[in-house]
Every structure is written in C-alpha cells, then in structure tokens.
Here is the input.
Amino acid sequence: MKSLLLPLCVIALSGCFAGSSDGPRPGFAPTIAPAAASLSQGNGAIFQAANGYAALTSGARASRIGDVLTIQLVERTSAVKSNSAATNRSGEFGLTPPTTGPLALFDPSDVNIGGDQSFSGSGRAAQANSLIGEISVTIAEIYPNGTMKVKGEKLLNLNRGEEYIQMTGIVRAADISTDNRILSSRVADARIAYSGSGEIARASKQGWLQKFFSAISPF
Here is the structure.
C-alpha cells in the first residue's frame, strides 16, 4: 500500500508546483536594444548613429527595437445565433358506400382515412467575451514595410496564486499615439492570453484522474 501511495503523492505535489514561475516565459522575455555603435560609425554633433533613425516629427514615439509601448486592451466580442422551424401537414380521404348491392356491407367508417403530421424545432447559441486593461510591451522586430512586432507579459503574484497576461502582435507606427499607447483592436495577428495558476485556478479544474475517466467515459 505504501509503495502505491508514494507515486501518487509525487504526482500530486508536481501538479501543485507546475504553474509557478519566477519570471517571464522565454518567448515573452523583454527584447534588449542592440549595443550602441562606436564613434567611428558616423556619429556627429546632432545625428547619433547609435540611436538609430527616427524622424524629427516622431518625438519620443516608440520606433526602435527594445522601445516600450502600452497596449490598451479593449477586447469585446459578442455572437448570437438562433434558428427555428415549424411544419404542419394534414390530409383526409373518405368514401360513402352505396346503401344497396354487395358494397352495402361496408360501414362508412371503414373507408375513411385521415392523417396528421407536424414538426417544430428551435436552437440558440450565444457567446460574449470582454477584456479591459493595459499591458506594456517591447518592440521585438521591425519589418521592411515599417510595421513592428511587439511582445510582452505582465505577471501578478497574488497571495492565492499567479495571474499573467501575454500579448504579441504586429502594429503600425502610424497607430501609436504621442504617449506611446495603442488600442489592442489596432494590433494585427494579435495573440492575447490571460490565465492564472495557484489554488484558486486548480480548484476550478478537474483532477487528473477525473480527466482520465471523463476521456474514456462513453456517456
């Protein structure tokens, strides 16, 4: 019995600590700006090659690798679908037999036929999502057409677990405001993940053994 309980305890403890994290995930680690260029690469009194090119009208707007900008999360989606159908059909057929002759043996109720058919059905589906907040990201890549790939992560370590927001996508320099903010609805190919770990998150999920039986259950 003890030999059976020990592996189960190890599995349970590994599940408890699986969601913990000491820092940003590798795919969302902050992008570091390239090393500064030396004075021999064309630095002058006004133009500094080490700072990269930025138009005079752009001011302090984020435009180089490693620059920080803020994504305003304004995601709100709603979808509703419904349908209904109804059909009805009825028919009746009857004959009145003669009162004399061989057919007089039939009763009028023996040659009356009638039928009814009806159907009704309806269905409805609805889904709504909302995500409001802010997350700061860094510019990871700059493409030849001027668009920029941004990525970032916000990790909140609360007393009952961790919550994190991950964001990546492509933005245009024209959509960035003067205070380096951009709406999430302006981010192309956006990937937004909001999740958490800890005892609250674990309590809202099925256990590993229950997941196993749910997967093989035929009901």
Remarks:
- The mean pLDDT is 76.
- The helical segments are 2-17, 199-203, 208-216.
- The chain has three helices and six strands.
